[in-house]
Design brief:
The complex is a heterotrimer of chains A (433), B (500) and C (125). With 433 residues, chain A is of the alpha/beta class. Chain A has twelve helices and twelve strands. In chain B, the strands form three sheets. Chain B has a seven-stranded mixed sheet, sandwiched between helices. A four-stranded antiparallel sheet of chain B has the order 10-11-13-12. Classes of the chains: A alpha/beta (433), B alpha/beta (500), C alpha+beta (125). Chains B and C meet through helix 15 of B and loops of C.
């Protein structure tokens, strides 16, 4: 091959590089390892993590069972090693699954159109806010303080240089839901969007309809966020929202220390042209057969460049496929049954506990630790090889004595009993250890 | 003659919604070990939804067959060469998939105690260090989820840096050969975009650059090698021009596969860059994601990196949130960890020497293809190619055949097309990037296919214009798709309603 | 090809002026260069536009083109039929597929525009 290229040595392949930029030493990276050594390295790292502990953590990442068939499907090389389906003749597999995905997201959320997925839930939120700013021609976004704190941080980062002021509004200290009176006070003629999350970060279900009425009265759009997608199997979908932005991790996507996940953005028909990200549409081939292709791509960066709706150019196709397979397996009845199990488990866990908020909850709730610190409770649980709840003081100083507990279909009764027991009787000194 | 493929039967398959029938299911939940709860009672009847209309109901075997049949309608690297220029479609080693599913990593919750996350944190630390060494930069954040996300992070770092000096500045310079994400990103970070023209060798014109750089310029976004596959030989001078006026140089790392182990951006004047782990470091594209877009910076930009940052304290890894100058978060948690695991496995398998060899093979493969195709297709620029080569359809266009047609005809020969019509500065661009993982035999088949198509263009252009001929579907009607968008399935109207 | 009573821009718009009213569209040449038009984005009635500034855009499958106002004024009417039938822009760009009607604020701007003959020679025949 070198001879064909008219070269004597491999080094001549980069003869056009100025000599002073060449690396004059080997990279300081250990010599290549065998497959066995690599597997062993990662196995050892995995063992350093909390492996096999029952856990009651939620807060945006949930433990749900992953049916075996999900990995069977996503491991197929034709899905795993294919590219963005720019050549529809040889990408109908990916295109068809995305079309099915978009359909299922519409069915679940009550929206008219959904894109092919976003990086994750947290980045879908600012994309939704940017969309509302384009639609309304206004600038300000109001976000409830009980929206996931890290999602709000991401929103602020994105908005920082786009002339999009972000203002937070309070939550109701008793119910834990968004404080709609505070919202009403802050809504004005410059408000582009109101953002609420349901179930919110405290697990409490929001009154979407009432929030929508307030927002719409002022000509603003309502963005509804979700982090626990399984709740869509049981809760009334946010039909009154204008944009839905959410995280699908609960649909067979492994927690994997926080990613990769898949976010969604869905909206009403009339706002379709402002939706960022990839979209798959149905059409016909030259012989009239049904076919699918990427469509409305003039919204995207590779055509509109600095005028694009967003700079996003990937979706999370393989992760969205996990969710699609999961939803196909569970289907109409299964998703409902799964959600009902989550509801039952969480309500069993919460029984007799001192819940901080009175609002209705799905599979997460905030509990007060009876004068002890959440860290002390978690320490006591860890001694029993259980990972407890998420302490909330980091984001909410007024909730420093509270933790967020989550139960799913994977939570077992005996472990829940232990949590209940420890929460009632944590010795004061447990955290001193 | 078509040597790589023969026709064979593929299965037809309706949409899941169309093959659904009431009562079928593909799951089994364990019996509930706690008392059932009445949803209406617990949540309020107004909060409980009715049945999810038209949601699928299918059995497990139907699910497996459905997706398996659909999968056979795709082309992937596992089937052969995937020469998409600037996308670096290399083989995705399967050990990476296996280790990403290691139990203690797959099920690690991002909020589990740090003391019980040390394994995950160690992986992140090790990958950060390896990427810093490969790029010659001082610090790396693994938080961005994709290349464009990394770009946004990088340009925000530049802005934060300038703001810390009292003036965010106004504009970002971008060569006309750049990816569309570059201008879209600069706009998102509140900068205006000034395009700079490439010279007749496809490179940044240093003289005209020097004449426009002033104190209003926040930075330059440069792709190196650039999108025509040519190394910006004047990169050190270019960086000098920017630095002299206090501006920063951002490198789009999309083409890093041409540089690993040979040269380092940190050594040729780059201040900040992103990497695409799904390109250079072999993590699978999965039909369009997930990827990861780590950002590497020189030390003067380090204080602005997204939170949290890893810190070592008494031999334990900790997450540090107390970083007053940070730009904030660009996503929740710590990044696409599962993708990071795969990339580290790739780096470990290669080692320093192996990474350099991979680069040399990538350069060799691209130059081999260029040499063999030059008699048949017009090379866009005479400058030597790095890891990809860009032709134009000039000669074929005379017969009415354009780059998109040749691409479609390649499908009949059993290959995925090259990148069509990009970069925009080349009329009728055909951008070919074979990567290092292709054998000579596969490259020869590909070259033969393109030579054969060049002959077809001369002898029977219709054959190329109507391609592909052997796929399940022929060319699709993208116009109708865009004029009357159908973005979701809906049930056919029932016969009785239709009669009303 | 190009109606004598219209005036044209080098950005390929036309305007038909009648008193202080103008009807604006894109030229045959513009639609041909774009190919199959799939979407038209037009301003709201009441919007004030300035000569040479974008008043909307037309899209084909893989390209977007801004439409620049040939004259300044206030939008009186938009051709809503194009929303459902953008293909009309390919079929009858100088007639049925007009884009907007405008009240001219500076009628003397028309003088800057090209005649049919000048436009014809500008785009070549």
């Amino acid at each position: 091959m070198l001879a064909v290229c008219g070269l004597q040595s491999l080094e001549e392949l980069y003869r056009q590089l100025p000599p002073d930029v060449l690396l004059d030493r080997p990279l300081a990276i250990e010599p290549g390892k065998s497959e066995y050594e690599i597997v062993e390295y990662f196995r050892a790292r995995g063992a350093e993590n909390a492996n096999g502990y029952p856990s009651f953590l939620g807060g945006g990442v949930y433990y749900h069972y992953r049916p075996v068939v999900v990995d069977t499907v996503v491991s197929r090389g034709e899905f795993l090693t294919s590219y963005t389906p720019y050549q529809p003749e040889i990408a109908q597999g990916t295109l068809t699954t995305i079309f099915e995905f978009q359909t299922m997201i519409c069915q679940l959320t009550g929206m008219d159109a959904a894109n092919a997925s976003m990086y994750d839930g947290s980045s879908a939120v600012p994309e939704a806010a940017m969309m509302a700013v384009r639609i309304t021609g206004r600038n300000k976004t109001l976000v409830a303080q009980n929206v996931h704190p890290e999602y709000r941080q991401v929103l602020r980062t994105y908005a920082m240089h786009q002339g999009m002021p972000i203002e937070e509004f309070a939550f109701d200290q008793a119910a834990g839901a968004a404080d709609l009176e505070d919202l009403e006070r802050r809504l004005d003629a410059d408000t582009a969007a109101v953002i609420i999350q349901t179930p919110n970060f405290f697990g409490v279900i929001e009154n979407v309809k009432a929030a929508a009425e307030l927002a719409h009265k002022q000509g603003a759009l309502l963005i509804v966020v979700f982090t626990e997608a399984v709740s869509l199997g049981l809760l009334e979908p946010p039909r009154d929202a204008d944009i839905v932005a959410g995280e699908l991790q609960s649909f067979a996507i492994p927690p994997s220390y926080g990613g990769p996940f898949a976010g969604i953005l869905a909206t009403r028909e009339k706002y379709l042209r402002q939706l960022p990200g990839r979209l798959v549409g149905e059409t016909k081939d030259s012989e009239g057969r049904r076919a699918f292709c990427l469509t409305l791509s003039t919204r995207e960066q590779h055509i509109r460049r600095e005028k694009a709706t967003s700079n996003i150019c990937t979706n999370q196709a393989l992760i969205a496929l996990m969710a699609t397979v999961f939803l196909s397996l569970y289907g109409k009845r299964g998703l409902r049954e799964l959600a009902e199990q989550n509801l039952a488990k969480a309500h069993y866990l919460a029984k007799d506990m001192k819940r901080r908020f009175s609002g209705p909850f799905f599979n997460e709730f905030v509990v007060q630790c009876n004068g002890r610190t959440p860290e002390a409770v978690n320490e006591a649980l860890l001694q029993r090889k259980i990972i407890g709840g998420l302490p909330l003081g980091r984001w909410y100083p007024s909730l420093a004595d509270c933790m967020l507990l989550c139960a799913t279909e994977m939570s077992r009764r005996e472990h829940m009993n232990t949590v209940r027991e420890v929460l009632q009787n944590v010795p004061e000194a447990a955290h001193v250890r | 003659m078509i040597r790589k493929v023969s026709r064979h039967i593929t299965q037809n398959e309706p949409l899941l919604f169309e093959s659904s029938s009431p009562g079928k299911k593909g799951y089994q939940l364990p019996d509930l070990d706690v008392p059932a709860v009445d949803p209406a009672e617990a949540l309020g009847a107004e909060n409980v939804r009715g049945e999810i209309e038209d949601f699928p109901e299918v059995s497990e075997v139907e699910v497996v067959r459905h997706f398996t049949r659909l999968s056979t309608w795709n082309y992937g690297i596992d089937l052969g060469l995937f020469p998409l220029g600037s996308c670096t479609m290399k083989y995705n080693p399967r050990v990476n998939e296996a280790v990403a599913r290691t139990e203690g990593l797959l099920w690690a919750h991002p909020y589990q105690p740090e003391a019980l996350s040390q394994g995950a944190m160690e992986i992140i630390a090790r990958l950060e260090a390896a990427l810093a060494e490969i790029t010659g930069m001082d610090a790396v954040t693994l938080q961005p989820a994709a290349g464009a996300h990394g770009e946004m992070t990088g340009i925000m770092l530049i802005r934060a840096y300038h703001e810390s000096k009292g003036n965010p500045r106004k504009k970002i310079l971008i060569p006309d050969s750049a990816h569309g994400t570059n201008p879209a990103t600069a706009t998102m970070v509140g900068y205006t975009v000034q395009n700079i023209k490439s010279n007749d060798r496809g490179m940044v014109d240093v003289e005209s650059l020097a004449s426009i750089v002033d104190e209003d310029v926040a930075g330059l976004m440069v792709t190196n090698p650039n999108t025509v596959g040519v190394f910006e030989g004047d990169i050190v001078r270019i960086a000098g021009i920017l630095h002299e006026k206090g501006a920063q140089v951002y490198m789009d790392g999309a083409n890093m596969n041409a540089l690993v182990g040979i040269t380092r951006p940190g050594d040729f004047g780059i201040d900040v860059m992103h990497l695409n782990l799904h390109k250079t470091f072999s993590t699978p594209h999965g039909g369009g994601g997930p990827g990861a877009g780590p950002v590497a910076v020189k030390s003067h930009l380090e204080p602005f990196l997204p939170i949290p940052r890893l810190r070592s304290e008494n031999d334990q890894w900790r997450w540090d949130y107390d970083r007053p100058q940070t730009i904030g978060r660009v996503r929740a948690f710590y990044g696409n960890f599962g993708v990071l695991v795969r990339a580290l496995a790739y780096i470990m398998a290669h080692g320093g020497e192996g990474l350099r060899n991979a680069t040399l093979d990538a350069l060799l493969n691209a130059n081999y293809i260029r040499k063999l195709l030059e008699p048949y297709y017009q090379i866009a620029y005479q400058a030597p190619s790095m890891h990809e080569c860009v032709f134009s359809d000039d000669r074929q266009a005379k017969r009415g055949v354009r780059t998109g047609d040749i691409a479609k005809r390649l499908i009949d020969y059993g290959f995925h097309p090259y990148t069509v019509s990009f970069p925009l500065i080349v009329r009728g661009a055909m951008m070919i990037e074979p990567t290092e993982t292709e054998s000579k035999a596969e490259l020869d088949l590909f070259v033969d296919a393109l030579i054969s198509i060049a002959k077809e263009v001369e002898e029977n252009p219709e054959l190329v214009l109507k391609a592909p001929h052997s796929t399940r579907i022929s060319r699709v009607d993208e116009v109708t798709a865009a004029r009357k968008p159908i973005l979701r399935w809906k049930p056919a109207p029932k016969a009785s309603q239709a009669a009303d | 090809m190009y109606p004598e009573n219209y005036r044209y821009t080098k950005e390929h718009e036309w305007v038909l002026v009648e008193g202080d009213r103008g009807t604006i569209g894109i030229t045959f040449h513009a639609q041909k260069e774009l190919g199959d038009i799939v979407y038209v984005d037009l301003p709201k009635v009441g919007t004030v536009v300035e000569q040479g500034k974008a008043l909307g855009s037309v899209e084909s499958v893989k390209a977007v083109s801004d439409i620049y106002a040939p004259v300044s004024g206030e939008i009186l009417e938009v051709n809503t039929a194009l929303a459902d039938a953008p293909e009309k822009l390919n079929e009858d760009p100088h007639g049925e597929a007009w884009l907007v009607k405008i009240r001219l604020s500076h009628p003397d701007e028309v003088k800057d525009l090209l005649s049919a003959a000048d436009y014809q020679s500008y785009v070549g025949s």
